[in-house]
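Hello,

Our lab assistant flagged a job as stuck in the queue for most of the afternoon. It eventually completed. Since we weren't sure the result was trustworthy after the delay, we are filing this so someone can double-check. Below is the sequence as submitted and the structure that was eventually returned. Let us know if re-running is recommended.
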Amino acid sequence: MARAEAILGAAGVPATVTISVCFGCPFEGKVDPGVVAELAARFAGRAEVVLADTIGVATPSRVKELVGRAKADGFHGHNTRNTGYANCLAALDAGAHVLDASVGGLGGCPYAPRATGNVATEDLVYLLEGEGVETGVDLDALVGISAWLEQLLGRTLEGYLYRAGPWPSP
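-- returned structure --
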């Protein structure tokens, strides 16, 4: 808390405060939504506040409720239990305007058992644009980067769109 306060105290420095394990903690279990909302309120107006489903246990109704209650600016989702993309849509429905994702779904949580990675940016962009949300993101470039990363890393990534291709296919 002291570090976040020090950063926010610096004049003219835009900041994002991401609150981790908002929906579940690998050490303490379920997280009290009231505690998350109070923490978010502490930073509201001074920073962009993002709620994170760090270990991938959230469901859309819980995301919508908590993002709305906390008046969060954004959501960081993991697709560990295949709810990450639906959770992103729920966050948007609740008023969020920032969604965190990573190319190919790379990343994850080192202290979450069997975590499978973040929401894949290209999959999320495809979904959002299909739902009429203009992203301004070059989807073809993202697909190309994921394919390149797969070759570089020598393994299949968590995302799907780079393998299936956008629809309709070129």
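-- support follow-up --
The delay was a queue issue, not a problem with the job. The result is valid. DSSP finds seven helices and four strands in the chain. The beta strands are 16-19, 48-52, 74-76, 98-100.
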